[in-house]
Design goal:
29% of the residues lie in helices and 22% in strands. The chain is an alpha/beta fold and 1124 residues long. An eight-stranded antiparallel β-barrel has the order 7-8-9-10-11-12-13-14. Strands 1, 2, 3, 4, 5, 6 and 15 form a seven-stranded antiparallel beta sheet that branches. A hairpin with a 2-residue loop joins strand 4 and strand 5. Helix 13 packs across helix 15, helix 29 packs antiparallel against helix 31 and helix 36 packs across helix 38.
Length: 1124
């Protein structure tokens, strides 16, 4: 083994073109050498870069140096320089015998391969420049199946290579497994015949004779021109032209090891001590200095810098600063990397810097200004304004709103950015022939703390409690973040708690989960909020990292217990356990309500109130606000004195005129009216496409960022729409909080109140949505536009906890039975939603960027630049720490009932089969057995055909009839995929049949949705109950949250769930649907029926692959998350 070090030689001290290459092999420099040594190869590029007749193809080495080792040091006396001798052309007789299998045969090629290659007709333009050869370069040799086992070489007049060469049984360890050896004798060394590859692919591979068996040793003594092993077995090609390669010693060349002329000066004082002397950061201390620069080096180093007296630290006009970030930054950085970086990096590696690499040094707050508040180091951006643009389009007046910035303020701000003190400064002291590197960590501390301190409504005093430190690192030493899943802990380590007033006792796991939630609300669980600021010394690769940290109590968390494990019950117990304190905190005058605000998807409003009644026997007073009209009936006094207020998350985007108006929004109109604010427009309908609903594993780590799951399309128009919507909404909130309302005032918007706590049920429903599902189906009860409004309502993108739309005194909780996080960006989003906990990188989160102006996007790039690997590691660790601290996920008790999965396979008709093949013909894979992965984006065409198959509809009726034949009064849940038309097909089929059924869509009000679903939540009691439909049709998007186990135990999946290439997401959606009935409280065995559509003659089709994928054990294990 050996180390191979490659160096380049460039003109003009590295700034010109490359003129030579030096390769240094250290260790076992030859494949057969038993002793270590050192060999240097020098390759001159002059033949290739000359203007006339430049050489093309592989360049040979011009000279080489061989040095032996004596003990552990280099034996300089053994240094032997050689230069390339003139090659000698000749010919040899190369005769083969003892045929054996060729390499092509050994790797499994057969006559079919040879035939196919021979039948292939290449285009002339690809072969017109082929070199002339006695061998066919396009087809196999007639003797391609055999190679010579023995090769006899003769006719070498100097008797260097004559002899018998035997094939060695090397397989795949040498090029083409081609290696023949002539054994060594007392008078001649062993020789080898092998194929030397042209690794640059600029010519043909060449057979050579060498003293070692490896082409990497560069020890060839003879090249065989236009020779392949098959030639040795054909008499007419026995004679082969060759070129003998030789080297000759050059005694005039000697080995010299010069002493370095540039020396890094050692500092007498510690760098950190110098920093503590001047915490204002007015003068940057010297980190290191490189002396002994020659005039030529200084001239090259300052080639792109202005000479003269500029900036600080000027001494008689001889100090010339080097610009490493401005117009000439990249050129100067390149010069620095060539001329100075090796010496500086070596100096640092030897531990001779006045501070330790990777060690963190604490910084006390400056007396004049706490970290994070300095305008000089982190100037505040000018506030954007909005202006009205009126125009006429097709005879109609169109009103648009555009951002407006004060030109002078923006220009002044940009100049402040340019004038910020630099962290690194490089300059050349020409009088002392010295390069000086200065570093100012105070600047990095201010910029790191600014994100943690500003824009969060925490006040200036908070800044003084932030801890700041810094460390110096090297970019080359940083590692990539390890790919690892988020692991959600359970609550087993906690004691059990009780809640007085509960009608039914909690399970042990529920009582422990309650203890953990209480601990967070009591401020006993802390989290280390952290932000960093990175600054790189371009050209050297040093990175100064300023870090600001603050340990703060968590302001909420996530209860992610498994489906059917009683998250609602635990939450009700939490409310009940602190109800007396909540009631005592009420204030009608200040709008402090003792209630817990429950924000739920529209279809779960009534279910929450039913659970409250069931588990507390009305010990908690509840108000259900299903619409704006309902809100108008309640006074401030009634809302403040309630214990629970239940509201649909999409109330902000409730449509007027019975849900038929596209523009009227009763809730935001009420808010604007009460606040005296401008009208709030409807939530944007375009632009911010979400990822497919993430209802699976808690994170298989992947690169996070807008490009993966935002799908913003990069249109500034869409960002402006989202920003204006948020601007008008936040402006109305500010104004309404300045109002005073009497106790009897009715219809006061929810944003005016301060709630005891906020609970977001099925919180993943607000964070993610399926754009395709929402645009192609009317089946969703929580549309994409409503989700955007809900995110604004919940303050997902608002980092200032004091200005969030909904304020909570105690905590903000998220409930989800379906793990929703697959990237660090989603964890960051969740942490901000649950009370505004700051995770590393939150300041640059895409929820903020999705509404940025073009100016702000530009300024973000100016301020931040790219993030290092170390920063990405810090983001990952912060997210994992948050999940460990704020999230819990517990298993439910094992169900006592069984689950039976049944499949009903049916064949599509001949006409449907033809339609299916036509739908996928563009893929050139016209077959019924094609898989979704093979079809890619075209899978939607095929799935649209199978989803609407008449055979699928008939199978649905057959399953329903068979169930009702055995259980006439049973209730049946049918789930269908809304993305590719399955829901529409099932709805149309049921409407045209004689079966009575119920379904929920956007035309139903929130209370109508809840009423319909409640029919299937409880067993029949009255005659009216028994007269209602027995079948409930839901889309998979409506599967979350419903408790249907009491009255239902038969589930039909009309078509499989498929949203794309993520099987975990799709499987988890199906498990979520099945979990509506297969959950705690189910007393009957559950049967899940699936309908699989096959080809006209029973051929395997798309459904088979999707169902197999969704039911795979590994996929299901991932879909149900990582349990402790």
């Amino acid at each position: 083994g050996q180390w191979l070090l490659t160096y380049g030689a460039w003109e003009d001290n590295g700034s010109g073109r490359q003129v030579a290459e030096i390769r240094v092999a250290l260790g076992q420099v030859g494949a057969l050498d038993k002793e270590f040594g050192l060999r240097v190869y020098v390759k001159c590029f002059a033949p290739a870069i000359r203007l006339q007749n430049p050489k093309r193809g592989m360049l040979g080495d011009s000279a080489r140096l061989t040095i032996k080792l004596k003990g552990h040091s280099v034996d300089k006396e053994s240094a032997n320089w050689e230069i390339r001798a003139e090659p000698t052309k000749s010919s040899l007789e190369i005769v083969g015998s003892d045929p054996c299998d060729s390499q092509r045969v050994l790797v499994g090629l057969n006559d079919t391969a040879a035939k196919e290659i021979r039948q292939h007709k290449p285009q002339n333009r690809f072969i017109k420049n082929f070199p002339k050869s006695r061998n066919d370069l396009l087809h196999y040799h007639p003797k391609w199946k055999t190679w010579p086992g023995t090769i006899a070489v003769s006719d070498d007049g100097n008797d260097l290579v004559n002899g018998i060469y035997k094939k060695l049984p090397c397989q795949h360890t040498v090029v083409h497994s081609a290696l023949w050896r002539r054994d060594a004798t007392d008078t001649s060394p062993a020789l080898y015949i092998y194929i030397r590859p042209d690794v640059m692919r600029s010519g043909l591979d060449v057979a050579v004779i060498s003293t070692t068996p490896s082409y990497r040793d560069c020890m060839e003594i003879c090249e065989l021109k236009d020779w392949i092993p098959e030639n040795a077995l054909v008499e007419k090609t026995h004679t082969t032209n060759v070129k003998f390669l030789g080297w000759k010693e050059v005694e005039e060349l000697t080995l010299e090891v010069p002493q370095p002329s540039m020396i890094t000066e050692k500092s007498d004082t510690l760098f950190h001590d110098e920093i503590l002397k001047d915490m204002q950061g007015l003068d940057s201390p010297i980190l290191c200095a490189l002396s002994g620069l020659s005039n030529e080096v200084m001239k090259s180093m300052l080639r792109h810098s202005n000479d003269g007296i500029t900036g600080k630290n000027v001494d008689n006009g001889n100090i010339v600063p080097i610009d490493l970030v401005g117009k000439m930054g990249s050129r100067n950085a390149k010069q620095l990397s060539i001329l100075a970086a090796p010496s500086l990096l070596k100096y640092a590696a030897e531990g001779r810097l006045p501070l330790e690499l990777l060690k963190r040094y604490d910084l006390p707050h400056p007396d004049e200004c706490a970290f994070g508040l300095s305008e000089a180091n982190f100037p505040s951006r000018p506030v954007e304004k909005w202006k009205v643009i009126e125009s006429t389009k097709k005879g109609k007046q169109v009103v648009k709103y555009e951002r407006e910035f004060d030109a002078e303020e923006s220009n002044e701000f940009y100049h402040k950015l340019l004038q910020r003190p630099p962290v690194f400064e490089a300059s050349v002291d020409k009088s002392n022939c010295k390069l000086i590197i200065r570093m100012n960590p105070i600047v990095a501390g201010h910029q790191a703390a600014a994100h943690l301190v500003r824009g969060r409504g925490l006040g200036d005093d908070y800044a003084k409690t932030v801890d700041v430190d810094y460390c110096l690192s090297e970019l080359s030493s940083m590692g990539e973040p390890m790919t690892k899943e988020f692991h959600v802990p359970n609550s087993d380590a906690y004691e059990e708690s009780t809640a007085e007033g509960m009608a039914l006792p909690l399970y042990h796991r529920q009582a422990k989960a309650l203890t953990r939630m209480r601990a967070i609300e009591d401020g006993k669980v802390e989290f280390n909020e952290e932000e960093r600021s990175e600054h790189i010394l371009n050209g050297v690769g040093w990175c100064l990292m300023g870090r600001a940290t603050k340990t703060s109590p968590l302001k909420g968390g996530v209860l992610g217990d498994a489906i059917g494990s009683g998250k609602t019950v635990v939450t009700i117990a939490l409310i009940l356990s602190g109800i007396e304190e909540a009631r005592s905190n009420r204030s009608l005058e200040e709008g402090r309500s003792g209630a817990t605000l429950i924000v739920v998807p529209p279809g779960l409003v009534k279910q929450w109130d039913d659970e409250r009644k069931k588990f507390t026997k009305n010990k908690l007073k509840s108000i259900v606000l299903d619409s704006t009209d309902t809100l108008k009936r309640f006074s401030v006094k009634e809302i403040c004195e309630a214990d629970m207020v239940i509201v649909p998350a999409g109330i902000i985007e409730e449509r007027g005129n019975g849900g038929k108006s596209a523009t009227a929004r009763p809730y935001t109109e009420l808010l604007s009216s009460k606040a005296g604010a401008d009208k709030i427009p409807p939530a944007p309908m375009n632009g911010h496409k979400e990822a497919p609903t993430i209802e699976g594993t808690w994170v298989r780590n992947m690169a996070s960022g807008p490009a993966i799951y935002v799908g913003n399309t990069g249109k500034q128009k869409h960002r402006d729409e989202q920003a204006f919507y948020g601007h008008r909404y936040s402006d109305a909130i500010k104004k309404i909080r300045q109002k005073k309302f009497g106790a009897s005032e009715r219809g006061v918007p929810l944003e005016w109140f301060t709630w005891n706590r906020i609970v977001v049920d099925e919180c993943h429903e607000c964070l993610v949505s399926s754009a395709k599902q929402d645009t192609e189906s009317r089946a969703s009860d929580f549309k994409a536009q409503a989700r955007r409004g809900a995110r604004e309502f919940l303050g997902v993108g608002c980092t200032d906890s004091s200005s969030r739309p909904l304020l909570a005194k105690t905590a903000v909780w998220g409930l989800t039975g379906t793990p929703l996080l697959e990237t660090e960006a989603r964890v960051t989003e969740l942490a901000n939603l649950m009370g505004g906990t700051y995770l590393t990188g939150s300041a640059h989160h895409w929820r903020k960027e999705e509404r940025e102006s073009g100016r702000d996007i530009f300024l973000n790039q100016q301020e931040e630049g790219s993030k290092s690997r170390e920063y990405r590691c810090a983001i990952q660790e912060s997210c994992h720490a948050y999940v460990r601290a704020a999230c819990q996920r517990n298993r439910g008790e094992k169900l006592v009932v069984n689950l039976e999965r049944k499949q009903k396979a049916v064949n599509m008709s001949e006409s449907e089969g033809a339609k299916f093949l036509s739908a996928i013909k563009d893929t050139n894979l016209e077959s019924y057995s094609v898989t979704p992965d093979q079809l890619g984006d075209m899978a939607s065409n095929g799935l649209a055909v199978t989803a609407s198959s008449s055979a699928r509809r008939s199978a649905l009726f057959g399953i329903i009839d068979s169930i009702q034949a055995d259980e006439p009064d049973t209730k049946i849940i049918v789930f269908a995929n809304a993305v590719y038309g399955g829901y529409k097909s099932a709805l149309s089929a049921l409407q045209s049949s004689g079966h009575q059924f119920s379904h929920v869509d956007e035309n139903h009000s929130v209370m109508e949705q809840n009423e319909i679903i409640s029919w299937f939540r409880h067993i029949d009691v009255t005659k009216e109950d028994r007269s209602r439909p027995r079948i409930l049709l839901l889309s998979f998007s409506q599967a979350a949250g419903h408790n249907l186990q009491e009255a239902c135990h038969n589930v039909i999946m009309f078509d499989p769930m498929y949203s794309g290439s993520d099987p975990v997401a799709d499987a988890s959606v199906e498990e979520q649907a099945l979990g509506r009935v297969m959950r705690q409280g189910q007393k009957d065995d559950v049967t899940c029926y699936r309908i699989l559509v096959k080809g006209p003659n029973g051929e395997r089709c798309l459904d088979d692959d999707i169902v197999e994928r969704n039911l795979d054990e590994d996929v299901l294990r991932a879909a149900t998350s990582n349990f402790d």
